[in-house]
Description:
The protein is of the alpha+beta class. It contains 6 helices and 8 strands. It has helices at residues 29-46, 52-72, 97-101, 107-114, 124-131, 164-176, and strands at 4-9, 14-19, 24-25, 90-93, 119-122, 135-137, 142-147, 150-155. The strands form 3 sheets. The chain has a 3-stranded antiparallel sheet with strand order 1-2-3, with no helix packed on it. The chain has a 3-stranded antiparallel sheet with strand order 6-7-8. It has a two-stranded antiparallel ribbon with strand order 4-5. Helix 1 (29-46) runs antiparallel to helix 2 (52-72) and helix 1 (29-46) crosses helix 4 (107-114). The protein is globular, with a radius of gyration of 17 Å. It starts with a strand and ends in a 5-residue tail after the last helix.
Amino acid sequence: MIDESNKINSDTSIIIKESNKKRKLNITLEDYLEDTKDKLNLYLNAQQIKDEKKLKSFLRNRFSVSCNLAIEEGKLSPSSFQNDEAVIHENAHIISMQYLLQDEVNITKLEDATSPYNCLRLSPNLHKAFDKNKITFNTEGRIEGYNENKFISIDIKNHLKRKEYIKINYENWLKFKRNMQ
């Protein structure tokens, strides 16, 4: 078993110290988001956007690292719900990458795909329910949805700095009964 090693991540060009307990990134969230923006501009200028699989992989990696940095800096809660800290959480896009990459792709959409402020930290079950449009999140910090044709509403805590993602998604869900995917 390896206790600690240094590896260079080719997508991020930063050194990541890996350990069995915690990965610590040696870069601030602000610097990482700026570096991401620079790399996204290169993608757009080089028209590498045509390789959708490679782009999605890059965006998912950047989204994951930016969410982890936001958690480390206290800008994103490890859990989006009260009394849910014991569960393993996943980073869930509020506005999905698929939605952001449809139609004309621009720098704003690419930045939103990697932004930790477009993230909810959810248990795998809630993440799947959200992706399958069984639930959504309203602008007052509640989960809403239907279970066996019965309306449900559950209170959540909200640690997001940019609530517009939730508002845009919620308005879409009210109109079309689906999240922005």
